[in-house]
Design a protein that fits this description.
Blueprint: H1 4-10, E1 34-35, H2 64-79, E2 100-104, H3 111-119, H4 124-131, H5 133-142, E3 153-155, H6 163-171, H7 196-248
Parallel strand pairs: 1-2, 2-3
Helix pairs in contact: 5-6
Length: 249
C-alpha cells in the first residue's frame, strides 16, 4: 500500500492542477481495481423496515444505533485482518491485486430504504445532512480509530458538507503525513452547523422586532424626537445656570 501523500505525488500534474485516478482493472468488465467492502447482508441503511435484513435499526432522528452500526462497518473495513475474500470486510491481503481499499462511510441504499426515504420525502443528501454522518466520520478519523488500518479510498455522500474538514483530518492522520505532530495531537477543525429551526426562530424574532419598532416609530416618532429635543434643551439650560452660579461666587 501507499500513503495518500505518495498517491498525490505520483498523480501530480506538473504545470497544471487536478488529479486523475483510473480505478478500473482494465478487464472486459471494467471491474473496480480495489476492494470495495460492499457486503449485501451487512449493509447499513438509514431507515428501518420490518423485513429489512440490513444492520440498520433506527431512523436518522433516533439513529444512535444505526450510526454505531455504520461506524462498526467502517472500522471493520479498515482494521480487520487483511483478506482478498470479497465477502469479508477488511483490507486486501494482496495490494498488487487490489491497490485500493474502499471505506464506504455512507448510508447504503436498498429497495426497502429507498421506499422508506421516499415515504419521508427525503433524499440521500437530506439523510446525510440530518444524520450528520460526515461529522461523525470526521470525529472518528480524528480520534485515530484507524491507526494501523488501511485507508486509501474514503467514500462519503454530500461531500459539500464537512468534506474539507474530513479531507483535513484524513491528510493529517499519523502514517499518512510526514509531520511530527499528527492525528489527535492536532486540534479538531471547527464544525458548526446551526439547526435550521434555530435560524428560522431567530430570523422570525428579528423580523417581529423590526416590524414592532417600525410601528412605534410611525405612531410616536415625532413625539419621540420632540421629547429628545426638549430633554437636551433642559440639560443645556441646567448646565448654563450652574456655570453662572459658579461665576457669581
Amino acid at each position: 500500500g501507499i500513503t495518500v501523500a505518495e498517491a498525490m505525488e505520483m498523480a501530480k500534474i506538473y504545470g497544471g492542477g487536478g488529479y486523475l485516478l483510473a480505478l478500473d482493472r482494465h478487464d472486459v468488465y471494467a471491474s473496480f481495481c480495489g476492494k470495495s467492502n460492499w457486503i449485501e447482508d451487512k449493509l447499513v441503511t438509514c431507515y428501518t423496515t420490518a423485513t429489512s435484513t440490513t444492520t440498520s435499526t433506527a431512523l436518522y432522528k433516533k439513529g444512535e444505533r444505526a450510526i454505531a452500526s455504520l461506524k462498526a462497518y467502517v472500522l471493520e473495513s479498515a482494521n480487520n485482518q487483511p483478506t482478498n475474500d470479497a465477502s469479508v470486510l477488511g483490507p486486501p491481503a494482496d495490494w498488487d491485486a487490489y491497490p485500493f481499499n474502499e471505506i464506504q462511510a455512507l448510508w447504503q441504499q436498498t429497495v426497502s430504504s429507498v421506499v422508506s426515504g421516499l415515504a419521508h420525502v427525503s433524499s440521500i443528501l437530506d439523510d446525510n445532512a440530518k444524520s450528520n454522518i460526515n461529522r461523525e466520520m470526521v470525529l472518528l478519523v480524528h480520534s485515530e480509530a484507524f491507526v494501523g488500518g488501511a485507508l486509501s479510498l474514503f467514500a462519503v455522500d454530500n461531500v459539500a458538507r464537512d468534506g474539507l474538514t474530513l479531507l483535513s483530518v484524513l491528510r493529517t492522520q499519523c502514517g499518512q503525513t510526514t509531520i511530527d505532530v499528527c492525528g489527535s495531537q492536532l486540534s479538531l477543525p471547527r464544525i458548526f452547523h446551526p439547526p435550521l429551526s434555530k435560524i428560522v426562530y431567530w430570523s422570525f424574532l428579528l423580523l417581529v422586532g423590526i416590524v414592532v419598532l417600525r410601528g412605534i416609530w410611525r405612531s410616536h416618532g415625532l413625539d419621540m424626537l420632540l421629547w429628545i429635543q426638549s430633554f437636551f434643551k433642559e440639560n443645556s439650560s441646567v448646565s448654563s445656570s450652574s456655570s453662572l452660579s459658579a461665576d457669581f461666587y
